[in-house]
Each structure stands twice: as C-alpha cells, then as structure tokens.
Design brief:
six-stranded parallel sheet, seven-stranded parallel sheet, Rossmann fold, about 35% helix, alpha/beta, 2 domains, about 350 residues
Length: about 350
C-alpha cells in the first residue's frame, strides 16, 4: 500500500516515537510510506521511509501525494487530511495518539475534529471509551510497543546508592500540564527529605533541555542529577541504572516511559493516567495511585524501604512488558488498514 503520514514534527516524544516505529516497520514490510511535514518540520529520529515537506508553511491538501491511505494523528492534521482525501488522494484514517480536548488549548477545534474521520484508531481501552462516550465512534485499538533497544542490561549495583529516575519535559509552551511535573518535583523532594541517601535522576531530551529555562534551572539544584540521553541506547542505560522509575502523568493514552522502564528492569511507581492501565496492575507489577490520593512519594518510600517488594514488582513489570512489541503493534495496524481499504474499494 501507499501510505501517507502527515505529521507536525518528529522530535523526541512518545507520540512521535510511535509514528516513527510504525512508519519504519511498515516500510520494512514493503509498503510505500511517505511522511509529510510542514516546511519547518523537525526530524530527530532515523527514518527509513520517504520524507517530504510542505511547499510553504503549514500542510495544505495540495502537498499530499496520491496514495491508498492518509493517516492523520494530531487534531491539526485531521482537517487537511480530510480535504486531501476528498480530492482523491487516499482513504482517511485517523490514528489518535492522544485525546486532545480535555488537556490542550483550542479544545473546540480538537473536539470537533473527532466528527470528521469515520475511520478511527486509538491506543487504549481508556481512550476508546472517552471517544465513544463523547462522539459515538468506537475506535479500534493499536497498542503501544517497546523496541528491542530497551532491555535490562543488569547494571544495577546493590552496593551503590539507590537510584530513582523520572522524565522531565519542557514545561514552556503549554503541552506538559498533564505531566504534573510540579507535583512530581514536590513528591521527589519529599522522598529526598526522608531519604537523603538516594540519588534522583531527571531525564530530559537534550533539545528541550537546551531551550528550556525551567529545565536548565534544575541543573543547579543539588537534590537532582540531570541526564540528557542523545539516543535510545543512552536512554536504556538510564532506565537500567534506575532502581525505581516514577511517572506523575495524569493523562496519557499510552504512557511509553513507564513500560520502557519496566522492560529495563526498574520498579515502576506511577499515577493513574488512563492508558497505563493497559500494562499496570497495582501491587502486581507496580505501585499505582490516583492523583487525588497524593500518595506518590509514599509509594516511592515504600519501595525504598522494602527491597524485596521492589525487586518483585520489577520482575513482574519486566515480564509483563514482553507482550508489548512494535512488531505486534505494526502487524495489528497493518491488518486494520487492509480491512479499511477492502471496505472502501476505489
């Protein structure tokens, strides 16, 4: 099939990682995949498919090549994808990587975007339920995955100080409120006050670290050590040296860092975020709390003081994560596209 993915950016992040994995793996499977970006679009992942850019500024229907399927994602790509589809450039399928209306600006536009594309794919049962309740459309689920680069490298040293890590993204720009990063730092500070012997690593994409005054200020805070992995191999190293990985996000359709850290052998302490229920079970493979319970620090401290529980949750998390692979996700995605195309012959 000829597949066109209109995207805004391919900078480091969970949604962009999923687009990258699907596009690259579909290319390897023999499909003709094209990524269409705005004229100033940024690509930080290694892409194996064709990249093209809008002739001027934002995406326009005229920028789309002809194909079999147009796969929109973020709400700002939906309207233009539908116009291109109506011009005969491919069947429009939306792969919704988040549910934007409840946590991002311009919610009237993002809400109405779900009334445009009848072919909808989502990442989790939680996201499926929200969209069905609000729009009457039952999207089909394409699960998240974990790449083979992420694995338990067994570099944890029980004789060294215990390491707690968390992802910190750039707060400037209004796209990270759902990550509850102020709450995260508050809770980590509480942990550090009770257990000054632990080391706390804050992991940020290097590009965001370089342009964010907020993230740069954390470098001078003696309570933290800042890590800026340049690639997935370095990110795997930081996951693998962590005894406990912490996620404070309250609103994620997939929540990739948690399951990646699990794959690398870290015990996960997390806030319920919706999509992370696909792989999280409290007391079985993680400690999970609802945000209103204000329990994140207490759960971290529990695992600091109970190493046997920490290791048991880490083992179960690593085991559960094995069922989530990008090969599986891509196969499910491909089969859904085949089915949609067969129902809509040209």
């Amino acid at each position: 099939m000829k597949l066109i993915f209109p995207v805004l950016t391919l900078t480091r992040g969970g949604a962009q990682r999923m687009l990258t994995e699907l596009a690259n793996r579909l290319t390897e499977m023999g499909h003709e995949v094209t990524i269409l970006l705005p004229s100033d679009g940024v690509v930080e992942y290694e892409m194996k498919c064709k990249l093209i850019y809008a002739q001027e500024g934002e995406l326009a229907a005229s920028d789309f090549p002809a194909g079999d399927v147009i796969i929109s994602n973020f709400y700002t790509t939906v309207e233009v994808s539908q116009r291109a589809s109506e011009e005969g450039k491919g069947i429009h399928v939306r792969l919704a990587l988040c549910y934007e209306p409840t946590f991002l600006p311009d919610n009237s536009r993002s809400f109405s975007s779900y009334n445009i594309a009848p072919n909808l794919l989502v990442l989790s049962h939680w996201q499926q339920g929200i969209v069905q309740m609000n729009h009457g459309i039952k999207g089909r689920i394409v699960p998240i995955g974990v790449g083979p680069v992420f694995k338990n490298t067994k570099i944890r040293d029980r004789n060294k100080r215990l390491v707690i890590s968390a992802i910190m993204r750039k707060p400037e720009g209004g796209f990270s409120a759902h990550r509850e990063q102020d709450y995260l730092l508050q809770q980590l500070n509480k942990v550090k006050a009770h257990h000054p012997e632990v080391e706390i690593y804050l992991i940020s994409p290097p590009g965001e670290q370089a342009e964010s005054a907020t993230l740069q200020a954390l470098v001078n805070d003696e309570r933290y050590q800042v890590r800026t992995p340049a690639n997935d191999t370095e990110l795997c190293f930081h996951y693998s040296e962590s005894d406990i990985f912490v996620s404070s996000s309250t609103y994620d359709t997939g929540s990739l860092p948690g399951i990646e850290a699990m794959r690398c052998g870290a015990a996960l302490v997390t806030v319920y975020a919706g999509g992370n229920k696909e792989y999280c079970t409290h007391g079985h493979n993680c400690l999970m709390s609802y945000r209103f319970e204000n329990r994140l620090a207490d759960d971290i401290i529990t695992l600091i003081r109970d190493p046997s529980l920490r290791r048991r949750l880490a083992r179960k998390g690593e085991e559960v994560s094995q069922d989530f692979t990008w090969e599986k996700s891509t196969r499910i995605f491909q089969n859904m596209l085949f089915e949609i195309v067969s129902r809509n012959p040209s």
